[in-house]
């Protein structure tokens, strides 16, 4: 039996704790706020679940189905994901995905009459995909972990530093937590604790109310990407008490700190719905949210870095950090298991 210390109670930290606890290890999760923390990068109404890249296979879908069964509750809405593609490129994309085992269906844009696509585009629906109710995932993981005898959840606990050579976590009150394995996964604050280069991004999203007469249609709609008149917009459908969420790749930009002015992002977010929704005036904006995440400057994506013999960091999450968290959790759990090397 090993001791695992996890800094950060977001999706990566919590799912890693779940995997390690299932393997019988002692696990301590340290989180600066409550658990789950509404201020964390992971906390949101919903996130899209699909294969990480075209042709990558159905593994994530199966991971999340197993987690839903283990943790209990209903947090995976299997409504599918539709991506817009130029009609002249659709054949190659579909063949590559199907060879990798991804189940697809080609759809004409008029099957989604309330969503705007660029001229000449068709839709590709990924069937084994959909929407994760993100805040419910976090709550389910916390609830499950609280019932495990070898798990300690320490909320409201500030970390001041990490000794990567000795696998020790130093708390703000001077106490030290030592682990056989340490994972630092504190969202955008990870880079304050360990020496990993990152680039900080801000993604602004708009939450809107669908018209009352279309609410049932929207609740059965898929998530949609590469939409809008410019092919850069995406949306996540409402359902199970959530709102319709809209954004665009144009609403994602590099920032120096999370505290930079949000005024340019707010104006652009209001414009987003005009491009992607038919009859946009019928969709009042309920709220705007400015989300932050970090990427690896070497790749522009997420990364899992080994910083010492037994210390790992998920400082760079990329834009798909939530949906791929089960893969990171399994990788750390495999390192901790006796007889398995990193």
Automatic annotation (TrEMBL):
Keyword Flavoprotein: yes
Keywords: FAD, Flavoprotein, Oxidoreductase
InterPro entries on file: FAD-dep_OxRdtase, FAD/NAD-bd_sf, MTOX
Pfam families the UniProt entry points to: DAO (PF01266)
Entry superkingdom: Bacteria
Domain FAD dependent oxidoreductase: 4-334
Co-factor requirement: FAD
Stated name of the protein: FAD-binding oxidoreductase
């Amino acid at each position: 039996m090993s001791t695992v210390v996890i800094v950060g109670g977001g999706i990566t930290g919590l799912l890693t704790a779940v995997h390690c606890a299932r393997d019988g290890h002692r696990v301590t999760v340290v989180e600066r706020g409550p658990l789950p923390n509404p201020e964390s990068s992971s906390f949101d109404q919903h996130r899209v679940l699909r294969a990480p890249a075209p042709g990558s296979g159905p593994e994530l879908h199966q991971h999340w189905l197993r987690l839903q069964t283990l943790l209990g509750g209903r947090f995976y809405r299997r409504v599918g994901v539709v991506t817009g593609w130029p009609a002249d490129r659709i054949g190659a994309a579909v063949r590559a995905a199907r060879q990798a085992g991804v189940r697809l269906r080609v759809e004409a844009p008029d099957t989604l009459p309330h969503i705007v696509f660029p001229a000449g585009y068709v839709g590709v629906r990924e069937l084994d995909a959909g929407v994760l109710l993100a805040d419910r995932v976090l709550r389910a993981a916390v609830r499950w972990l609280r019932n495990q005898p070898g798990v300690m959840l320490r909320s409201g606990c500030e970390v001041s530093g990490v000794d990567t050579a000795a696998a020790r976590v130093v708390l703000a009150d001077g106490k030290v937590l030592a682990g056989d394995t340490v994972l630092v996964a504190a969202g955008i604050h990870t880079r304050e604790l360990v020496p990993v280069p990152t680039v900080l991004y801000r993604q602004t999203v708009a939450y809107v109310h669908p018209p009352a007469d279309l609410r049932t249609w929207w609740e059965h709609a898929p998530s949609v990407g590469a939409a809008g008149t410019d092919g850069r917009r995406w949306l996540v459908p409402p359902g199970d008490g959530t709102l319709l969420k809209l954004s665009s790749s144009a609403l994602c930009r590099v920032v120096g700190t999370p505290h930079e002015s949000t005024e340019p992002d707010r104006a652009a977010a209001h414009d987003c719905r005009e491009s992607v929704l038919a009859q946009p005036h019928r969709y009042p904006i309920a709220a705007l949210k400015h989300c932050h995440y970090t990427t690896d400057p070497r790749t522009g994506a997420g990364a899992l870095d080994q910083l010492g013999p037994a210390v790992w960091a998920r400082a760079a999450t990329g834009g798909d950090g939530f949906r791929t968290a089960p893969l990171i959790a399994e990788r750390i759990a495999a390192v901790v298991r006796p007889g398995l090397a990193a």
